[in-house]
Amino acid sequence: MTRVWKWNRPVTVREVLEDLQQERSIAYTTVMTVLDNLHQKGWVRREEEGRAYRYEAVSTRAAYAAALMNDAWAQSDNPAAALVAFFGMMSDEQRRALRDAIRIVQGPETGGAEDEKPQSGNRSGNTRNPESDGENAQSDGNPGSAPERAGR
Fold first, then answer.
1. Which keywords does this Swiss-Prot/TrEMBL entry list (predicted)?
2. What is the DSSP string of 96-145?
């Protein structure tokens, strides 16, 4: 999937193969099998072009990561404890990104004086534009299993 996301356009088995062969030796049939498996699982779509297929990711890398996190969280018998443990593993930068994401999901706040207070954990008043963070600000918003949420 990393190679398909990297190209950000429909790719052939040959293109992925040549890209991978810059780093290691790999067979055409191995790449073809992996792309076919990804297609069967719903992670890529394909269109016939001559005698070959062009494969394209059905979702962003961010949506894929979100689906994995949601699936892992859903497996927990104590979701709150799982979140606390997960947040405890985050770096300061990751926690800032989380706060930005929560602000995006919640939308603009209405009200007077509260809008002027810095958010807790952001006492400096510095803010980032989460929309400039590219994939980090994306969400597909689809419910369902991981492949479905990731754009199937």
1. DNA-binding, Transcription, Transcription regulation
2. HHHHHHHHHHH-----SGGGGSPPTT-TT-----GGGGGGGG------SS
What CA–CA distance (Å, rounded) separates 146 from 101? 20
Q: What are 90-148's pLDDT values in tens digits?
A: 999 999 999 999 999 998 765 444 444 444 444 334 443 333 333 333 334 333 444 44
Contact, 45 vs 56, CB < 8 A? Answer: yes
Nearest to 35 by CA among 24, 23, 47: 47
Q: Contact 67/146 with Cβ under 8 angstroms?
A: yes
pTM over cut 0.70: no
DSSP β-bridge partners for residue 149: none
Q: 2-57: which CATH number, 3.30.420.40, 1.10.10.10, 1.10.3470.10, 1.20.1440.230?
A: 1.10.10.10
